[in-house]
Prior knowledge:
Blueprint: E1 5-6, H1 17-27, E2 34-35, H2 48-55, E3 60-63, E4 77-80, H3 96-112, E5 121-127, H4 129-136, H5 139-163, E6 169-175, H6 177-182, H7 192-205, E7 212-216, H8 233-245, E8 252-255, H9 264-267, E9 280-283, H10 297-309, E10 315-316, H11 330-344
Parallel strand pairs: 1-10, 2-5, 5-6, 6-7, 7-8, 8-9, 9-10
Antiparallel strand pairs: 3-4
Helix pairs in contact: 1-3, 3-5, 4-5, 7-8
Amino acid sequence: MPPTNVHFNGSVNLPETETVMREIAARVPKGVxxxxxxxxxxxQQWIFFQLGKFQQTPGLEPxxxxxxxxxxxxxxxxxxxxGTDPEGIEWPNLGYADVYQDSFAIFHKLQDEGTIPAGVxxxxxxxxxxxxxxxxxxPEDQDRLEPSYERALLADxxxxxxxxxxxxxxxxxxxxxxxxxxxxxxxxxxxxxxxVERLARDVDHVSTDVPVGxxxxxxxxxxxxxxxxxxxxxxxxxxNNTTARASRPIDFFSFTVPQYQRDPxxxxxLASLASAPATxxxxxxxPYHPDTQPEGTTAEQVRLIDGxxxxxxxxxxxxxxxxxxxxxxxxxxxxLHREILATYA
Length: 345
């Protein structure tokens, strides 16, 4: 079955939320079940939004950058102040619930006026606790502070879901740093069981009447992955294990497919995919720069995915969000979603 649906992973490099929603609704009028707010403003660079929260938390103080041999290592990091009890840390308002409530008001207005079709949900994106903990804390303090930060993050989500109608919202967990651990790109990397335990806990925290999904990501720094995945094997393993461990259904997954990738071996692990039949699957077949893609690549990717999924319905997305795409390229990129679907309709 050819692709029929579109998924947006979150960020869209446009000036503000209403523009994001209007552009998506106008340029991709079919196949969209959920619309994000574009993670505009200070959220545009993903967990950079949380660094300020770490820096203003009493009991934490600046530390020198940790040498991890990549550019992110030069970002500021913090540590526990001497003599501080990790259990005594009181995190500030993490900010997600506040901004998403503001964005939902815009979504509600646009849906009421008919710009956004009825039945489309407002999608919110949360990083996992491990993402910000790995990004902004020195390694020695990460295990000591992750539990309290996770509680603060889940409390933020609770506050949001208490404020929004459950029949109009969906939650996406961004799973990116986890692949850094699984691919041993981090010191003291967590193993699969530890990663899956965390992801299942995040999934289960979302009320069963709210769709929840995972964005499986290998990063997008200068449109480069922190490591090129050799195949879908690691992503499929995360899907299978998390699906088995979670107590509630997982409604959607979005998979990383490098834009050049057309090797049958890359897609072979889909033969062992064990997601539930009703789970929506999205594959990153929308290239950021289609003019650099060898001719016929998308058609070959569709053929290879079809060969493994058979009659299962699936859809398309970009590899990551569109927060780092040049702003002037966003309309063309949104149009490409619609054009790919039309090609295989």
